[in-house]
Amino acid sequence: MSDMPQIDHRLLRPGMRVAVAVSGGADSVALLRALIEAAPQIGLVLSVAHVHHGIREAEADGDAEFVAALAAGHDLVFHRRDVDTLATARANRETIEEAARNLRYAWFRELLESGEADAVATAHTLDDQAETVLHKLLRGAWTEGLGGIHLMVKCERGVILRPFLGIRRTEIETWLRAIGQEWREDASNLDTAFTRNRLRHELLPVLATYNPQIHSQLANLATLARDEDAYWQGEVGRILPSLALPGKPVREGGRAASTHPGEASLAFEIERLPQSPAMRRRILRAAARQLGTALNFDQTERLMTMLGAGATRRQQLTAELHAERSPRELRLVRRKP
C-alpha cells in the first residue's frame, strides 16, 4: 500500500479546530483523509467546509452531496456556503477564477472570525505552487509575487494553512487509489480556456522535457523569493519612516501639506536615499503604496531615472500619480479625480 502523504505538522497544534476546505477533488479529499488519520495523535478537532460556486450546475450539486456524505461518514460537522460566482465576476469585473477564489476566501475568513474554527486548511500542493509561480513570472511579478502560495496566512482571527504544499499531486492520487478512496473529477480543470489549465496541461509538460524537476525548481524559487521579500520588507519598514517627507518644502523652512482636496504626497531628499538600486526601488514602490498606488516595473524605472542628474522634472506615472523632481527632492503626488 502506498504511504500516506506527509502533512506539515509544524502548522498544527493540540486542540486546534481545523475546518478542512474540501471541493471533492483528489487533493482536498486526500487532505481531509490525512488529517483524519493524524487528528488523534495531534489532538485536532476537524470539520469540513465546502463552497458551491453556483456554476457547473448538476455536476457541482453532485460535488456538494459527495462532500456532505464524506463528512457524515466520518462524523464531522459540515459547513456549506452557496455563492453566485458569475454575478460576482460581472459586478466586480473579475475573471470567473478570481471571483471564485475571492468568494471562497471571504467565507473562510468569516468562519475564522465567527469562532467556529481556529484554522482553515486548504489542499494546495507543490504542483499548485509551481503553476502559481510560473503564472506570476509570465505576468511580470516582483519577488513578492514569485513567493507564490504561502504555507500559512494569518488573518485577523485564526489562520489559513496549506499542509500539502510540499506534496506532488501524483503522490496524492496514488495514495487515494491505494486506500480505495473515491474523489470527484472537475471537468473544468481540463478546459484550456482557463490560463492555469493551459499552464498545467500545455506549458509545464513542455518545460519538463528541459528539466524533469521543473515543479520542484519553481517551488524552490517561491521559497527563496518569500524569504528574500520578507528580509527586504523588514529593511524598508525600518528605513522608510526616516526618509519619507510629507507635503512640500516652504521658503520659511518646514513643510506644508497640500490644500487640494484628495491630494497626498511624499517626498525624498535624493542625497539621503541609499545608493543600492534594490533598496531604492523598494522605497519608491513602498511610498507609492502608502499613497494608494501600485507601481509596475516600467513606472518604477522611470522614477529611478528621475533620481539621476539632469533628469526629467515631471512624470505622469498613472492616472492619479505623478512625480516631481527638484534639485534636492523627488516628490510623489497622488491626486484623486
User: What number is the mean pLDDT?
Assistant: 91
**SSE order, one letter for each helix or strand:** EHEHEHHEHHEEHHHEEEEHHEEE
Tell me the overall shape: elongated
Largest sheet: 6 strands, mixed
Structural class: alpha/beta
Low-confidence stretches at least 5 residues in length (pLDDT < 50)?
none
Q: Any descriptors?
A:
2 domains, five-stranded antiparallel sheet, 13 strands, 11 helices, Rossmann fold, alpha/beta, six-stranded mixed sheet, 337 residues
Give the secondary structure arrangement, pairings included.
Layout: E1 17-21, H1 26-42, E2 45-52, H2 57-73, E3 77-82, H3 85-92, H4 96-113, E4 119-121, H5 126-138, H6 143-146, E5 152-154, E6 159-161, H7 169-179, H8 195-210, H9 214-243, E7 245-246, E8 248-249, E9 255-256, E10 263-269, H10 277-290, H11 297-306, E11 314-316, E12 321-325, E13 329-335
Parallel strand pairs: 1-2, 1-4, 2-3, 4-6
Antiparallel strand pairs: 5-6, 7-10, 8-9, 10-13, 11-12, 12-13
